Amino acid sequence: KEKKIAFAGNLNPAKLKNTEDYLKSRFQWGMSTELKPIDDKTTAQIIIKLAKDIRLVLPEKVIEYLLNRMPRDFMSIKHALIKINTFLITLRKKRIKIC
């Protein structure tokens, strides 16, 4: 049974310093690609989709706020939305005291 392995890094394998030549060569055998940060529009679409998956509706201003203040990686976005959702659920369960 054939198995595959993937490596991720912030440099092209050819530019690795202090790495044996045979390892650089092997790393270059496979496919290599550069991943660039995603743009605001795509990030906003990801936020909307993940929010929708947990039945969370976010106003446009909240999405803009998140775009300006949150890291762009998937896990950071997901964790932020889970925290927002948890906070809102907790907030809804509290009774409002009238003085």
Can you walk me through this structure?
- The mean pLDDT is about 85.
- The protein has four helices and no strands.
- It is mostly helical and about 100 residues long.
- It has helices at about 20-25, 40-55, 60-70, 75-95.
- Helix 2 crosses helix 4 (about 75-95).
Short description:
The chain has 99 residues and is mainly α. Helices cover 52% and strands 0% of the residues.
Number of DSSP strands? Answer: 0
Question: Which class of secondary structure composition applies to the elements?
Answer: mainly alpha
Biggest beta-sheet profile? none
Q: What sort of overall outline do the alpha carbons produce when their principal axes are compared?
A: elongated
- The helix/strand order is HHHH
Look at the structure and give the mean pLDDT.
87
Cα gyration radius (Å): 21 Å
Q: Termini separation (Å)?
A: 71 Å
Q: Indicate the multimeric state.
A: single chain
Count of helical regions = 4
The poorly predicted ranges are none
Query: Strand portion, in percent?
Result: under 5%
What descriptive keywords fit this protein?
99 residues; mainly alpha; 0% strand; elongated
Layout of helices and strands:
Layout: H1 21-27, H2 40-53, H3 60-69, H4 74-93
Helix pairs in contact: 2-4
